[in-house]
Amino acid sequence: MSAMPGKVCVDGVAEVAGEKVFVLHLIQARDPGLVDRPFFAAYDEGATWFTDLKPAFGSAEFLPGLEPG
Known about the structure:
This protein is mostly beta strands. The protein has strands spanning 2-3, 6-16, 19-29, 39-42.
């Protein structure tokens, strides 16, 4: 999906450290250093867009420099 930080790919759902999460990565990004780096969002079955997601594991951002919404 196209979002503010770039083009986000949802790779799937996984359980990591006992938490159900979405596994994502950026296909294209405003910051090229973020491309192809996997990141995790807390699982939310009601989420329909990137801005609906929250970083997993209680983190404040998905990756350094990639904040939610």
